[in-house]
Amino acid sequence: MSRMGDVLAGLHAAWEFDSDSVLIRYERGLRTPKLLAALGERRIPLAALAGVTLDPGRRGTVVLRAEPRPGADPLVEAAAGQLKEGCDPYRLVLPAEREVLAEYYADELRARLKPDPGPADRFLVAAPEAPLSFKAYDGKASFDGRTVRYRWFWTGASSAKWKAGDQSFDVSELNGVEWRSPEVFEGHLRLLRGEDAPAQADQDPATVVFGLGYGSVHESLPFAAAVLAAVRTRGPAAAVTAAPPGPRRDPADIAERIRHLGELHQAGLVTDEEFAAKKAELLSEL
Predict the structure, then answer these.
(1) Bridge partners (DSSP) listed for residue 188
(2) pTM here?
(3) What is the fold, at CATH topology level, of the domain defined by 6-112?
């Protein structure tokens, strides 16, 4: 860049240019896509980019877009092409009258990129930081940086998942993740373990299922990206290092599960004995 610290502000984001990276800061306004607001800011090393484009946008705008190298960004890898245009973290929308300025920065970036760099052999963009959690339709997923945990909801979880019980997966057990956007039919987050999984996500204890209002993109995708990055970057000792004790349960989560249990009890789906035993078990986890 001609000057370190130059800033180009556009719709929902601003790009700050340094000698070896671009710092993208996303706005937190009501009109900002929730995913971008949740990301906050991201530093993109120039080594993670394959190219830069500048194209006409809608309604008197131009779009400056950095093209990430395949394999360089865990968020892009987890999304697997499912993000809508407005949620693309590499797009900067500008008024058409700033096209000349945008072209200047595009040329400056292009001059610093390696020609045809090809796929990256490791993640070059930092993943969202743990701890992370979100509520799916059938359970709550949490990740502390080393272990993914699923806690099933009484309402939503299938009988197969209840029989399997709450789940815990060290990243050393995993080969990757499969994220299917909650904006499409049968959205889910599946943890891949190198074994055949049930065809139906609602029957797989390694999968949480999304639903209307559950597992939203801005929560579940950063979660998937963080898990994927941990799986790809774990060291050789990760498989033999004992996971730390799990955190104490959130009292609000315990209260919610007891409420669900009470609803099943009132509906006659749980006996008095089962209700008392399960309630005592939940209370003991506080």
Answers:
(1) 180, 209
(2) 0.81
(3) PH-domain like (2.30.29)
